[in-house]
Amino acid sequence: MIIIIILIVILLLLTYYIKYNNKELFENKKYYDCIISINIHHKPKFLLLQLDNIKEHVKCNYAVILNCNEYMYNECKNMKFSENIYINNEVINKQRYKGTLLKGHYSNIQFALNNFNFKYFIICSGRNFFDNIMTIDELNKVIKLGQYTGPFYGMYDKNNINWHWPLLIKTKLSMFFLEKNKNLYNSPHEGLLFSYNSCLKIVNFLENNEDIKINLFNYNASVEEFALQTIIINFNESFYYIGNGCCTEEVIGKNTDTDIKFMYKVKEDWYE
Asked: What does pTM read for this prediction?
């Protein structure tokens, strides 16, 4: 009888541990190969063109999360989207060269983790269009190649302070890592690719360092070009890059065995 009671107690403890430490086993979350995060602030007509372009070129199990400004949120609520297009209810009015762009994508990371299981997370600009077909095999190939993986794309060099570094090194995030003798890393955010585990580490770090998070979101500089990248690398993950830069505004041409890209940016007046 005592043995039976002990076994029951062990079973209950095991059930409790699994339930509260492996929630995904009990949560029926929808799975996607990749999540595409977009900060949108342009006209509804342009958004529909962008979503049609994604549908035409992305040939894997994907979802799109839209982070809207107030105008586009109200517009989107009256629009019909396919079931894999999600509107983030956190409305953020974004500005260039402000931390609000980063805040929008961070909110989408949280939305994705709370609602889905997924393999990859991809950050897009509201002006990104795809030019090559993207499959899960092609994405896996990017990872295998280590294409533009941090820290090889760009990093802070105290002996050659250029780009946006004079401003970015003054963020609390930069000071946190530099004081620990760790470095800072960068890439264009348009086309940034990283894993589910990277998303977990990003959220865990920023939620446990509220002062750093608030400082980033209110900072007057392009923090989206280095913040997530820096956190990812300093927590032993990698980021990858599948775009053609932040300013080129040109199509990218066909992929090769050693150079895989999927998206480009249209000109700012393209949708006027």
From this structure: 0.86
